[in-house]
Amino acid sequence: MPKTAIFLADGFEEIEALTVVDLLRRAGIEISMVSIMGRKNVKGSHNIAVEADELFEDANLDSCDMLILPGGMPGTSNLFACEPLKGKIKEFDAEGKMLAAICAAPTVYGRMGLLNGKKASCYPGCEGDLAGADVRMSEVTVDGHFITSRGMGTAIPFGLAIIEHFQGKKAAEEMASRIVYKV
Question: Is residue 96 in a domain?
């Protein structure tokens, strides 16, 4: 079974994180909600408290097949400020392992210089922080080992793209049908 981790920081966009968690768990893809805050209780950008599964310092991220960043503010800024997380992202990039981000969070990869020459999408107005990227306005953009998406309204297509990566197009289409998405 594929293993993924999604990172929660105070100010994360709740819909972007929890939609992905829900869809992946429905699909049988392991996903751990990992707090970078030093505590399991993390407050989203709309003051919704979420209990993470584990703390960053306790997570076995080397066993993961994909790292996922939800957007939101100041959640994205908090993710970018987390040096241990950025170190793990650099490792994944160097190994060609999957990295995904939605909304403002693709700017973490962009500001790290990882999207140079890659197609990527992000929240409108954040394009300037996708250094060197070929910015797209599509709901979801897949290029190499990166999956990026635009915002809360694209959280379902983003989650389905992750399912498609691990289980194929048919599985993603079946999940879309099961959740009555765009029927």
Answer: yes
Provide the pLDDT for residue 183: 61
Domain holding 26: CATH number? 3.40.50.880
Task: Report mean pLDDT in 10-residue bins for the chain, 183 residues.
Answer: 96 98 98 98 98 98 98 97 98 98 98 97 96 95 98 98 98 97 80
pTM higher than the cut 0.90: yes
Domain, as residue range, for 93: 3-177
Q: Let me know if residue 100 belongs to a domain.
A: yes
The tally of domains found in the chain comes to 1
Answer yes or no: is 182 within a domain: no
How many residues are there in the chain?
Answer: 183
